[in-house]
Amino acid sequence: MAETLSIAVPPLPWRRIVVGCGMAAIDFVATVDAFPKPDDKIRSKRLKVLGGGNAGNALTCAARLGLTPRLISKVADDTHGGYILAELEADGIDISNVVICNGGTSTFSYVIVDNQMKTRTCIYTPVYPAMVPEDLPRSSLLSALDEAKLVYFDGWLHRTALVIAQQAAEMNIPILIDAETNKSGLNGLLDLASYIICSEKFPQEWTSIPSITYALVSILLRFPHVRFAIATLGEKGCIMLERSIDDEGSDIDETDVENLLESLKMRVDKDNVLPSCVSSECMRLCAPGVGTISGRLLLGTAEIIPSSEIVDTTGAGDAFIGAILYGHFLWTQHVIRSFYLR
């Protein structure tokens, strides 16, 4: 059986500091009628220069939703670096822990937006010299994490990220990992993760299991401290596999998680153009040949947007991460209130 979730949004807690570590960039976004073929020369319809980078985008979203973000990243003292920092600061992001190197180049990306297919292709050049743990003094690290309620990593700057994640774990600060692709050093971060957000392709690529739901079960079995894993599905919404607390639902017969997903899809209101969410009850979820966990499966739908209103999908996944960061604070506030109202 599944139930439709209706969530009332309470006010945010006063202490709402989130720390993000990862890429901050400048994007040169060129819109074209159709993606070029090899050796083509085409003319752009328009060109925009915007702030970008996974962490930069996600924290910008979080700031606009009312959180207090702090960014740990690295830029050069070039024109691009100045633009990146000015835009982040204007959106209310604390940039005091962004390392500025003398010389070198800041991260920049060329983004080609295909007007015909409504897709985007990114070609990025990372910051040089790359960020290393020695760039961030321990005093700065502790200052950045002071009073933080959540730490988010976009998977870039992996050597520095691991040092920060280890310190956050020692301080019992929850850790959210964006597993967009299987980047170098990602496994070390996943070992410390409290929450995992991944792309549609990642679960199957990382586990070599063809079913996305079975792959999510495998991920939660591999990382026993992970509370939930979410796979984003683009216009199809997202799937969330949440581990239950204290083996809630463990006394119920096992249910094949792939079959459960299909039953949730049947409960989605196809006439509703707004985002919605359906959830299973807590139960024993099995993936044949993989294992079983106690938890629940949630299916979230995406807003149905007419194609005429779609500009492009640049930064869409990062905006989703920003919304999850915001949702974490709402959920934490709800838990605290529920505890005191008992």
UniProtKB/TrEMBL annotation:
<dbReference type="InterPro" id="IPR052562">
    <property type="entry name" value="Ketohexokinase-related"/>
</dbReference>
<dbReference type="InterPro" id="IPR002173">
    <property type="entry name" value="Carboh/pur_kinase_PfkB_CS"/>
</dbReference>
<comment type="similarity">
    <text>Belongs to the carbohydrate kinase PfkB family.</text>
</comment>
<dbReference type="Pfam" id="PF00294">
    <property type="entry name" value="PfkB"/>
</dbReference>
<dbReference type="InterPro" id="IPR002139">
    <property type="entry name" value="Ribo/fructo_kinase"/>
</dbReference>
<dbReference type="InterPro" id="IPR029056">
    <property type="entry name" value="Ribokinase-like"/>
</dbReference>
<protein>
    <submittedName>
        <fullName>Sulfofructose kinase-like isoform X3</fullName>
    </submittedName>
</protein>
<keyword id="KW-0808">Transferase</keyword>
<feature type="domain" description="Carbohydrate kinase PfkB">
    <location>
        <begin position="22"/>
        <end position="242"/>
    </location>
</feature>
<dbReference type="InterPro" id="IPR011611">
    <property type="entry name" value="PfkB_dom"/>
</dbReference>
<keyword id="KW-0418">Kinase</keyword>
<dbReference type="GO" id="GO:0016301">
    <property type="term" value="F:kinase activity"/>
</dbReference>
